[in-house]
Amino acid sequence: MNGGGLRRRLLRMGRAASRAAEAGRIRYFALFAATTVAALAVCGFLLAAASFDGRAERSQARWPQTAAPGAPATLLWRATLASVDDRQYDVVYVEPLTPAAPLPPGLSRWPKPGEAVLSPALKAVGPQVRSEYGEAVGTIAPDGLESPSEYFAYARPTAERLDRDAMTEVSGFGVSWTPSLGEHMYNFGSKEFYWAYLALVGLPAGLFVVIAARVGAAARDRRTAILTALGASGTARAWFTVGEAYAPVALGASAAVLAVAPVLLTDIPLPVVDFVLHVPDARAALPGLMGAVLGVPLAVLAVVVLLQPRYRPGASTRPVAAGRRREWVLWLFPVALFGTVQGTDLAPYDLRLPVLAAGSAVTIALLPVVAGAVVSAAGPVLAGFGAARGRVGMLVAGRRLAVGARPVARLVAAVVIAVGLAAQGQIAISLFTDMSDRVDAVEEHLGTSVLSVSTTLSTTSADVAALERDLGPGVHALAVTRDPRSGRTDLVADCPVWRVLGVTCPAATPVELRTRHAGLARVAELERSVGERLHARTGDVTETLRTVAEPALVVLAKDGRQLSPSRVHQAANAHVAMATNVQVFAMTGTLGGSGEGIAAQQWLELLSVAGVLVIVIVAGVGSVAQFVRTGRELGPVSVLSGNGRVYYAVSVWSLLAPTAFAVGAAVGVTWYVTTPLMADSADRLSTLSAVGASGLACAAVMAWWGARTASAAGLAWRPRND
Which site among 216, 309, 405, 551 is 20 to 30 Å from 301 CA-CA? Predict the structure, then answer.
């Protein structure tokens, strides 16, 4: 028989053997699911890279080219920062100087003075945002946005509010470097995303492939030994192994193609995060996606072949004692554990996150091997204790655990990695949520009854009286001044306003603020809680606003009602300065959501959920295969002992105890590895406690499920000539 005919015969033999093998259907599903998950993980990484590149290109295309000295400028340009619903975005003010001024990408015509053009996502937020920068006319086209989900606006100020000195003279658009403008500034950075993706999605996907390749390994290892004894070469065994696996692997690749196809046809909004995957970016990644759906199945088949035991012709087939096996991997664990923590502290600041992410992934990946070795070493002790006490379940479990560390490592790997990833993900999320939670608490306490209006632009033409009239009767504006030497903050208003607010008309010399106004009193109380004091003095608000170095106002209603920040923003843009910032007033710091922190929190939640879901499937697949094998092996024991409860006893000691030990080890290792993170100890403790409790609950379910599955398999056991 020629080489081609032999290979085809071996493939058919492997395919037939996979159907009749122990846990054959479970392995078929495992390889199918693992290939699908691995292909999707690689495709997701490629799509993310293409999205970052596409957003960078569109951001470069809309950044202005500064007019050269002496060269005529065609337009004026100024970018400002705004926020809505704890999400930051950019507002660009433009003023064409010539009829031939080039339009920014995404605009079909110049807005008229007092008009604004918003992105579709920003326009969909609500009517209150549409009027903040003037009358909203049209929307920005997709080629002018980093992504369809970007919040962005172009506004043209009125002649009264146009601040030419604060704007940049521009001759065109398009640069070759990535500018500091756009959605990417307030989103998860590419470097941080890649490391989080590899740790939270890539590691579980790789584990899935390894676990799937070794499902039902005991029976296949025996068959491989028989083939070797019959004279089969390593190449022949490899083709036989490929024949077992190629069908589910090919089917998994096809499923991945079907799952990825929609991103090439339409924009896809992602759950949890405020992000839409743009079709042009996805299509730009098409060559890489094609390579992934072809290369990943080949890689899975290579893993399946390489993880088969190696048998040399003429070598002994006797089992090797566990103590004689090469367990050099165990020595890598302490190196990875201590190297991660110490290396993070010693690494340059820009490399600390990559070092921590890579070290954490390696440490968690090695932990199942260590847990398996410890549990395997405890097996003989457990067996001896069971024999002395007459406990059949303990005796059998101890003997099974003492066989070797690798089966135990495969059993606990999924739970250990799930606990580690979930805990680290939640601790990382707490870094971003801690500040936003404090901000939310302060904003909830203060409400919107006292708002701050600030600007970095000129206020020489500000009209505070017009601002108050625009906001309606009973609304007053107070000027804010800060002494840089003493750090004192003064509120300035005339006597009638102070009397309305329940304050005795102060002199020109500042006095500590005492007021009956509910909102202002809460602000003063908040400042006193951090050792600061608000002071009041009498003065002209408009004159103060026009002359102070850092122009700012406090806007409030005399009856203490809640004000609309968007309405105040609209009025401030019309009467105070070309661009203003409105937020809850707090002298101790800037309140408002951090866009980048909130986006990072959302991305970490999404990636953590995806990774844990993969781990859950891995745990289920690996456990079912182990349960089926346990049932068949314990069938004779249950018959001889006449006690079906032996399955539950064995399950407690061979499933629950090792998994519980592994969960505890994962919690302890995660606590140590996350020490470089600047997370509160109480937050870390609560997170690890919750994740550890979930892991123990999962271990209990696995033990119960394993006993039930093994009992069902044992009832079907019949003596065979095996």
Answer: 405
Report angle CA 498, 502, 507 to the nearest 5 degrees: 40
pLDDT of 691 over the 70 cut: yes
* Cβ neighbour number for residue 465 with a 10 Å cutoff: 12
List strands edge to edge, sheet with 115-118. 64-66, 168-173, 75-84, 87-96, 152-155, 115-118, 135-139
Taking a C-beta distance cutoff of 8 angstroms, is the pair 195, 354 a contact?
A: yes
Cβ partners under 8 Å of residue 664, min gap 6: 692
Give the residue from 114, 110, 117 showing the smallest Cα distance to 157.
114
DSSP annotation string for 345-382: HHS-GGGHHHHHHHHHHHHHHHHHHHHHHHHHHHHHHH
3-state secondary structure of 543: helix
How far is it, in rounded angstroms, from Cα 634 to Cα 632? 6
Determine phi and psi for 551, rounding to 5 degrees: -65, 130
Task: Compute the average pLDDT of residues 497-514.
Answer: 83
Cα-based distances in Å from 603 to 59, 189, 201: 21, 11, 12
Burial class of residue 681 in the structure, from the number of CB atoms within 10 Å of its CB (0-12 exposed, 13-18 middle, 19+ buried):
exposed
Half-sphere exposure in the Cβ direction for 35 (13 Å, CA): 31
Alpha carbon distance 602, 274 (integer Å): 8
- The CB-side HSE value for 623 (13 A sphere, CA atoms) comes to 27
Quickly state the pLDDT bin for 291 (edges 50, 70, 90): very high
**Spatial CA neighbour of 156 closest among 112, 91, 101:** 112
Contact call for residues 652 and 703 (beta carbons, < 8 A) = yes
Report the predicted TM-score, pTM, of the whole model to 2 decimal places. 0.81
Dihedral, CA of residue 326, residue 327, residue 331 and residue 333, to nearest 10: 140
> What is the sign of the dihedral through the CA atoms of 564, 545, 78 and 186?
negative
Average pLDDT, the chain: 82
DSSP 173: E
Q: Which of 2-16, 51-65, 132-146, 356-370 has the lowest mean pLDDT?
A: 2-16
Q: Which tokens go with 46?
A: 């490629």
Chain position carrying tokens 């300065």: 577
Please check the confidence at residue 306 and state whether its pLDDT lies above 90. Answer: no
Given its phi and psi angles, is residue 82 left (phi above 0), alpha (psi -120 to 50 degrees) or beta? beta
Give the confidence band of 592 by pLDDT, cuts at 50, 70, 90.
very low
Indicate if the pLDDT at residue 43 is higher than 90. Answer: yes
Smallest CA-to-CA distance from 554 within 536, 528, 533 is with 536
**Kind plus residue range of the DSSP H or E element containing 552:** strand 552-557
Rounded Cα–Cα distance for residues 98 and 75 (Å): 7
Count the residues in the chain: 722
Radius of gyration of the chain (CA): 33
Q: Give 569-607 as a 3 state SS string.
A: HHHHHHHCCCCCEEEECCCCCCCCCCHHHHHHHHHHHHH
Mean pLDDT computed over 113-118: 94
Angle at 40 between CA 692 and CA 357, to 5 degrees: 45
Q: With beta carbons less than 8 A apart as the criterion, state whether 591 and 670 touch.
A: no
Q: Tokens 């006292």 identify what position?
A: 450
Residue 351 pLDDT > 80, yes or no? no
Look up residue 54 and give its two tokens. 């596409």
- Going by the DSSP 8-state scheme, the letter that residue 318 receives in this structure is S
What per-residue confidence (pLDDT) applies to 430?
63
Strand ranges, E, within 15-108? 64-66, 75-84, 87-96
When pLDDT is cut at 50, 70 and 90, the band that residue 116 belongs to is very high
Structure tokens at 691: 């994740």
